[in-house]
Amino acid sequence: MVTRDTTKIDQPWPDEGLEQVKCCPYCNSSERMLAHRDVQDWSFYHAPGKWTYWSCTQCNSLYLSPRPTPETLGQAYGSYYTHRVADRDSLAVRVRERLKNECWSHWLRTDLHPRLHIPSRLSWLLYPFKSRLPEPFEIAELVKLPAGKLMDVGCGNGYTLSLAKRLGWQAMGLEVDPSAVRVARAQGLYIQQGSYARLADLRQVFDCIICSHVLEHVHDPQDMLHRLAGALNPGGTLLLSLPNATSLVRSHFGDNWRGLEAPRHLSIPSMSQLETNLREIGFSVRQRQLNHLWTAAESSRIQRRGIRINAHDKAVAKMLAANAALSSDRRYDFVQFICVRDRHRVF
User: Which region holds residue 156: left if phi is over 0, alpha if psi is between -120 and 50, else beta?
Assistant: First the structure.
């Protein structure tokens, strides 16, 4: 549980555990300007330190400098949400799981179990949940693809992996955090422990790879993108999601944008630069259209240094969403890309 105790985050990160970053991790330019100063872990109140983000003046991506070294970054994850597993014996948890699966089964025209088995003619009863239970990006795309071999890189507690398995995919996960691995394996999921570097031993194995909110956590995102491409079969699909540096929510909340999550988010690309990186590697890229400002309420909560989202935060998010709907500027809060590997490109 997150508690608002600033004792830990007000401590400095050890100097010997820091490294400088001299150029943008996405376009390699050294030209930059200060974007955010003295940002703290207001998301989980766990990681110590005050952090500085720089904006690349060439591609508008964000990056942390100085940042934790690869050897010390794990200290920032002690209370991370991927460690949590719901009490599956709880009636409330079981009802919520069935309700979600029922909604997604109707809306995505699939069959996720366990569910409530509401007849199609009564599916209108589920409409009030549409705004509160949006279909997961990855699952919405997986139901459109023929089931095959799937890898979830950075699978966390295995939630998405479990859903993919129920859809008939031969699903395995890769996760660096041992606590998250234990949670996922407790559910009977096949997980390898390790970093994305292990993909080098899995060349042209998978028909689909999920990489959900992982790229922003790694020290060399360009290297990771190449390894993801190499692990896909020709024509395979990469489902990639992460925060967008040119987000409308970031523009509104500044240092309090939930997408920063210092110091775990080492770098955050602009949507346009990430698409350029992917096309240069050999992907065709399609952007998923988004209708939600996902982190607006969380950013409002951070702005007032609260612990839980309240009615005020929801009202702020609703107002911001209404203003965004009137604008033609589609600065989505998250990047959600469907990337297909070129069948003829050699990696």
Answer: left
Cβ(224)–Cβ(217) below 8 Å:
no
Per-residue pLDDT tens for 17-62?
999 999 999 999 999 999 999 999 999 999 999 999 999 999 999 9
Any idea how long the chain is?
347
Residue 43 backbone phi and psi in degrees, to 5 = -80, -45
**DSSP secondary structure letters along 3-30:** ---TTTTTSPPPGGGEE---S-TTT---
* Other beta carbons less than 10 A from residue 337's beta carbon: 20
Neighbour-count burial of 242, counting CB atoms closer than 10 A to its CB (0-12 exposed, 13-18 middle, 19+ buried): buried
Residue pair 331/251 in contact (Cβ under 8 Å)? The answer is: yes
CA 287-175-336 angle, 5° bins: 10
Q: Could you give the CA distance from residue 341 to residue 285 in angstroms, rounded to a whole number?
A: 9
159 is written with which tokens?
């939630």
Q: Which of 134, 101, 100 is nearest to 241 (CA)?
A: 134
| Token pair listed for 222 | 């360009």
pTM: 0.94
Alpha carbon 137 to its chain's center: 11
- Choose among 45, 46, 39, 79: nearest CA to 62: 39
